[in-house]
Request: fold
Amino acid sequence: MSLCPPYAPFFGLGGVASAVSLIKTSVGAALGTAKSGIGIAGLGTFKPELIMKSLIPVVMSGIIAVYGLVVSVLIAGGVQPKDYSLYAGFIHLGAGLACGFTGLAAGYAIGYVGDSCVRAYVYESKVFVSMVLILIFAEVLGLYGLIVALIMNSRATEAPACL
Amino acid sequence: MSENVAVSKVTTQSVEQSGALAKLLVFSIALGVAPLGSYYLSLNYAWNGNATFAAITAVALANVVLVTFIIMSVIEEKHGAGVSAKAQQKPETKKTK
Reply:
């Protein structure tokens, strides 16, 4: 069993985009955008002047997708056709999984918090500050996954030379 | 009479919305272009091929775009509240005459 089997890039590319990181963060961002969009549509019928402020959950969901995009680009720059060990492939798969699942969780949280806080913003304007604070905490979950993915990816170049 | 009022409301709303739509387009494009562009630019010119720092730069720039959007929406709400209050005062003075 060699250290660089030919099926090693399968795991690396699985971490990149076609399976894990970008797909899962996109699902999280879509959940966040859809759920908070329902609340914004409800708010827009009562108070149209508050719409620009209530679009903040949607922008934060977009940033979750940007996290997944950055990790995908980062890993795709490290996958090689030759001299690519199975160790590096598993590291890249793990980095993609870390970023993808945390992005999914963060997008889900942003969606539900955005929806209910935006509906409450119609009646009480002081909800805005607490909404931004809660959304920042939800977004930081995705940031943690990105940091772990970055740290893992930096170890992928330590792989021993292939024979 | 109510039809004229409704038409004028729709035209004013569409004028306001076109400005808001342009701002949203600019922010959407910035949210997509800024992280990717900064990743590749900083990878080659700033960090000498160290991909981790380039990714950190891209994420920091994406968060800067987010903070800019939040600040801009708060400022616009203060301006919008001032303008709509002035617009409501004028027809009242005409009625009192």
Q: What stands out?
A: Chain A touches chain B at residues 48-53, 55-56, 59-60, 62-63, 66-67, 69-71, 73-74, 77-78, 132, 143, 146, 150, 153-154 (CB under 8 Å). The two ends of chain A are 11 Å apart (CA to CA). The CA atoms of residues 21 and 74 of chain A lie 11 Å apart. Chain A has a mean pLDDT of 86.
